[in-house]
Amino acid sequence: MEILSSIVEYASYFLALIGVLITLVGLPGIWVIFTSVMMWGVSTGFEQLTVQWILLFLAITLASTFIDNLTIILGAKKSGASNWGIVGAIVGMMIGTLVGNIPGMIIGAFVGAVMVEVFIAKKEGSEAIKAGIGTMVGFFLGILLKFVVAILMIYLWAVLAK
């Protein structure tokens, strides 16, 4: 049983590293890190990972997800996007992910915002492009934020939770 526990413990470390890396491409690495922390807790019998630590990691994970989504919206709004443009960016991101994986997600957000701004919000081409660029800036700021939070979570786990 001790061997299985060690395997799960090391797998959780590896999974956390993957979580940090996939955060850089806009995927939900924060949730992967949270899952790996929980795996580590299970493998160690929750001897070092207390309920307070679990709640702290969950709060950081939820806050990061919320703020990430907010940065996309604020980036779009700051550049003059309408509510329809934001919806277009979100739908474009989903369709782009299905069609073209990670590059599709990034391009899809831009194209979705621009298309909806032009065809539904009836904005001029330059205004629509500006809204699309603002959406992309918010998207990349969100990725940067999630990456910083991912490093923070790893630090908390490696240094403070042990």
Describe this structure in words.
The chain is 85% helix and 0% strand. The protein is an all-alpha fold. The protein has one domain (2-160). The two termini are 21 Å apart.
Rg, Å, rounded: 19 Å
Instruction: Flag low-confidence runs.
Output: none
Output mean pLDDT.
90
Total count of helical runs of at least 4 residues: 5
- Which bin fits the share of residues in helices? over 70%
| Beta-strand content bin | under 5%
Shape: elongated
What number of domains? 1
Structure summary:
The chain is mainly alpha-helical and 162 residues long. It contains 5 helices and no strands. The radius of gyration is 19 Å and the shape is elongated.
Task: Please describe the structure with a list of short key phrases separated by commas or semicolons.
mainly alpha; 5 helices; 162 residues
Question: Which SSEs are present, and which pair or pack?
Answer:
Layout: H1 2-23, H2 29-43, H3 51-78, H4 83-119, H5 125-160
Helix pairs in contact: 1-2, 1-5, 2-3, 2-5, 3-5, 4-5
